[in-house]
Amino acid sequence: MTSPLDLDERSSNPQDAPVLGKHPSPAAPGPGPSRLVSALLRVGLLPVMLIAAVAIFATIEPRFLGPLNGTNIGRQLSFLLIITMAQMLVLVTAEIDMSVGSTIALTSVVSTTVMVKVGGDGLQPVVLGVLAGLGVGLAMGLINGLIVAKFRVPSFIVTIGSGAIAFGVALMISSGSPITGLPRTFTRTIGNTKIGLVPLSLLIALAVFALLYLVLNWTTVGRYFYAVGGGENAARLVGVPVLRSKVLAFVLCSTLTSLSAILLTARVSSGEPNLGSEFVIYSIAAAVLGGTSFFGGEGRLGMAAIGALFLVVLNNGMNLIRVSSYTQQVVLGVLLIGAVVIDRLRRRSTSR
Predict the structure, then answer these.
(1) Are the CB atoms for 216 and 225 separated by under 8 Å?
(2) CB within 8 A of 258, min separation 6: which ones?
(3) What is the pLDDT of residues 220-272, one digit of tens each?
(4) Domain positions in the chain
């Protein structure tokens, strides 16, 4: 199966996370090799892996560093970056959202259906379609968040179930076929506009990054997310609204996923009921590769963004040198397992 990324060919240290309270400093690493190991576990191999990937692909395929491919990478990154940041919000609270792929599909179908029903090439069908699509994300987030937080059902199970429902609804609305005839204002302006060599979708993704960075690092809401992920009982004792924080994390995750789905739909110029299925594994892998912990309470937005960039560069480069999609799936799986193992080792190291 071709990845959606192929359309164009806080913190590992507790002291870095803005959680409530004060954390003890980690033990100083010992001399010799242990010092290097501790440094690698603390900083991570991701920046080194990204630089190595760029160097290898640029050496094998000269087109990799060309301006056209740079634009392609930027456009591919915009979709994954938004969804990775969305997934990270939930992971930080010690939960997970397995429904992001189905949210993309349902958003694509609902938004395009509204546009086609309204008709015309003006702004009205586009605005109404976009609002309908974002409404899908808001509803999905509320459903997931309330069930997980209120009834304390594992988010893995809840979001798999809600994702199955959303995917089924998308198939029913579209009858399993692409929805075409979209306004050119939508497909041309949102789907193809560039500022110089920079796609509009990437600028939107960077704006989302800046906003979430402020929320996570400079607001009470962000500190609540990390506190909930660090331990619900302790968070309640210091007055953190655990239920409200978890629901908000899921709402933000699904709404941002819907935003990415709208950008992706504009790019493919049709409503697709099968759109975005692979973004579940890609978003989780990118966030965890960037140091976001599966166990909650840890993660840095900048590193998650680098994780998304690394996966896009890896995917793009392997396509250019004609590595099969099956091999790419193997590579992705190995990276995800490796990231989880490193996360576990890092937590053991910092606890000591």
Answers:
(1) yes
(2) 103, 104, 107, 133, 134, 136, 137, 138, 140
(3) 999 999 999 999 999 999 999 999 999 999 999 999 999 999 999 999 999 99
(4) 4-24+41-351
Please give the CATH number for the structural domain made up of 4-24+41-351. Answer: 1.10.3470
pLDDT of 188-214, one tens digit each? 888 888 888 899 999 999 999 999 999
Distances (CA, A) of 46 to 51, 62, 289, 305: 9, 23, 7, 11
Higher pLDDT, 103 or 62: 103
